User: What shape does this take?
Amino acid sequence: MTALTIQLTDERLTRLKSAAEKLGLTIESFVERSIESALERKESISSTFDYILQKNTELYRRLAQ
Assistant: This one.
């Protein structure tokens, strides 16, 4: 596993700690889950766009003429 170091403002660190505590998580676990969630959303959105483009290819071709 690779370690990552980031710099946060005091305000952002306080907000991060608060959010993690509310969920009963360590900061590390909270950040890991947040990253995973963001990556899954990105993949889901990308898949949805691909599906829509594929499904409507003929329509888009006709509209472009």
Q: What stands out?
A: The chain has three helices and no strands.
